[in-house]
Amino acid sequence: MTEHGLLIGGEWEHAAETIPTIDPSDGTVIARLARGTAADVDRAVTAAEAALSGAWGALPAFERGRILTRIGALILEHQDALTRIEAADVGKPLRQARADVIACARYFEFYGGAADKVMGDTIPFLDGYTVLTLREPHGVTGHIIPWNYPLQILGRSVAAALAMGNACVLKPAEDASLSALMVARLAIEAGLPPGALNVVTGLGEEAGAALARHPGVNHLSFTGSVEVGRLIQAAAALNTIPVTLELGGKSPQLVFADADLDAALPFVVNAVIQNAGQTCSAGSRLLVEDAIYDTFLARVAERFRALRAGPASRDLDLGPVVNAGQRERVERFLALARKDGLPILAEGTIEADVPSEGHYVRPTLIGDVPPDHPLAQEEVFGPVLSAIRVRDEEHALEVANGTPYGLVAGIWTRDGGRQFRLARRLKAGQVFINNYGAAGGVELPFGGVKASGHGREKGFEALLGFSTTKTVALRHG
Ligand code: ADP
Q: Is the shortest distance between the CB of 214 and ligand 1 below 6 Å?
């Protein structure tokens, strides 16, 4: 069995201890990961600092961009292997895993192209002065990423940070680190100088916590749970460094009677079953206008009954969830729905012959869910859709905004005035009108408000987050 090491300063190192990584489709151990320690994190930060004052820091922006573009090309070249790895490690159906590989390559291409196009300003000022701004890297950036979209989240965060000239220390999730390790190998092959990207695998409370509190880190970006996000922000506060947090949501889709319901239907279903619902921006609440509630829900229910869950390699609608804890979490929510008498409108099926050690849950449609019920307020992180009947536009808005979260929202209506009224008043970082997710949208700024976090990743805007402004004022008389 492959035993993976740590990448520090361009060298792969063996760790004293390892942890198993498991295929959630059948429960088998597929590899062992290095269990990085605080001392490993410390050496990784030192290696990143050395890269900044060495070969990496000296590269002109366009050369950084070239390397990133090459990494993107290598990812595409190895897309079959990466697809298999991501499917086995996370439990994603193959098509979804492949889409993630391609999105990861797109981030490296996008930020490769952008690396030499971020410019400062010259600012009109007093007579006798010339004032300009320089955009500079933060320095060492720490990246703590989750297991649900390892490739995509690595891409959006590490590629943007490298484009701006930062040196990264990456802590992938203990449940799914294999694709990150492979991308790191491809990055070296593409000519990324030693220490520009360091990878310390291991446990959150060990390697993750050590990275979050390390005084040599100048910026932290974190995607994961609200609880851990708060710990990361608290650790960042002690070192007074900026932090980007993306912490999930309870995102609504608002469907009005005048909408193109044929168009809405597949988006409504896919938004909550993609990646078995383990998506920060999952559309997990369905708000439907009273006049069409029963007829539209009947159509959604029909789709749910046709959904099939099974091993990632069978490439069905959904795979397993990532681990036993995640399965128990989803089952707890479903038990609560039953205990509270919420109508279960439809369930999909789990293939009859799935391995007993796999972590499968049935896609489930529930409604009408009271807006203050935990099924309408809390993130399930599973293929569970909570439908809520709303009276009109104003009621829909009130319910949509009535959770602690604010990541994304979808609006389905043909009424142009309503589209923009709602787009402005919805509390969310992204609003989709007559679509949902914009096919991933590498180019589109992404992030939340309220408990969903702060700061923006993706698009050009991420480059501003991964850099800082230096103002230079020259008095020449
Ligand atoms: P999820 O609920 O999606 O598993 P977590 O927030 O637990 O998300 O984990 C996301 C990432 O944060 C993972 O890489 C994990 O190892 C890391 N992590 C977990 N706990 C901590 C911690 N106390 N400090 C720093 N990182 C942590």
A: no
